[in-house]
Fold each of these.
Amino acid sequence: MDNKTFRNAMGKFTTGVTVITTKVNEDIHGMTANAFMSVSLNPKLVTISIDNQAKMIDKIKTSGKYAVSFLSDEQVDVSMHFAGQKKLEGRFEFDYLLDLPVIPNALASVVCNVYEAHVVGDHTLFVGEVLDIVVRDGNPLTFFGGKYGQNLQIEFVNN
């Protein structure tokens, strides 16, 4: 199969949208990503996947920490800003959790120490040990078929 077919197939899996952030000295770095997953409850571990050509790889390796902010459906512009697709006006103001920058009003922000890093193909997987979390109510920003999606409200009924 060719790369386009593979990408199109992977795009059929709906994901949430996150912004990965880190800080090296006083310099803040951020990027939009949808490759995130929870790995373990004990210890509490999560994983992000970043293209090996991204500048963020060296930033996370240097800082030894990263934060993941889960975006709400009202934060498409934030996602596009950190993906380099749209520039927000003015300077972006971060919130902080354990001295790491996180996205204000995100549904959740997770702060991690790098637990392990693995180069796998053309990406690096950073397994992070969760140090702290902030959670807010709201609807997630989703990504499907190369486009931002609308959150589907599903109500589960206990029988």
Amino acid sequence: MSHVQLTDVQTLRERARQHVENGAVTEGYTADRETVLRLLNEALATELVCNLRYRRHYHMASGLKASVAADEFLEHAEQELEHADRLAERIVQLGGAPDFNPEGLTRRSHAQYVEGANLREMIVENLVAERIAIDSYREIIQYLGEHDPTTRRIFEDILAQEEEHADDMASLLDGLG
């Protein structure tokens, strides 16, 4: 078991008063803040692109099995937007600015925006995007390690939901036969 030396209360109090304008970013924050902000903004772009793609697919889904798929697309679109809000909130906490600018959104996103010509293609494109997000977020979690546990936990929560989304898409694809 590693022995962690706890800082005495007086020192904690004194440090908290220094650079108070930095808000949540204290002296104990050991991550490279600029890199973390870039990764958060890339993830924000990814979530926004996924929201838009799922929303389009919700409106465009047609065919016999489309209503079940459309319901999943809409649910996932809403969840991707919730992820975007959590990421934007964290960016602000770290003293950054969330980049919602639609210009360059797909360039900043890890996932692509592919419309899909039919229900099967839509499901495949959503599954591919989820798989990209899963690998990307897993790497970000490993990169963050113990340097930024709050951001890491946010990514862990989002990762778990992206894995559920991938499973949902794989099930829909399987259901098409």
